[in-house]
Amino acid sequence: MTLDQLPLVNATLNGIAACLLVLGLYLVKTGRLVAHRRCMLAAFATSCVFLVSYLVHKFWVLKGIHTPFRGPAALKSAYLVMLASHIVLAIAILPMALITIHRGLHQRFPEHRRLARWTWPIWMYVSVTGVGVYLILYVIWPQPGSP
Q1: What residues contact 75, with CB distance under 8 A and at least 6 apart?
Q2: Is the dihedral angle over the CA atoms 107, 110, 114, 120 positive or is it negative?
Q3: Closest Cα partner for 49 from 11, 5, 100?
Q4: How many CA atoms lie within 13 A of 19 on its CB side?
Q5: SS3 at position 7
Q6: pTM as predicted
Q7: pLDDT (tens digit, 9 = 90+) per residue, 86-122?
């Protein structure tokens, strides 16, 4: 795998996490708690793999690789708002997910549910906007020389 492939890998991992989150919500709503637990742990593992891959990519960004917004100037502000909210919420979701998972695994279900009502939509937003950032930067308005 090359550095150029990491954004696609990251977007794919975000997409998989989003699908697992939707499935996990469905499973808990239909009372399939063991499957829900497995699905949500898979979503968390997928997000952790994403985080490692993302940090590797950002390490190289610090080495001089930059991915500018190449879309219309009129949309740049909207993109930057989406990106900023994605980054801030991505930072917040890690401890939220850890606490939510911990409460669920320790069968502290009322506390788990209360926090999950906030964790799930934020985690979903971060996963979906992660895919959106990739599409904007690499598919809709691709970088020069990108595959």
Answers
A1: none
A2: positive
A3: 11
A4: 8
A5: helix
A6: 0.93
A7: 999 999 999 999 999 999 999 999 999 999 999 999 9
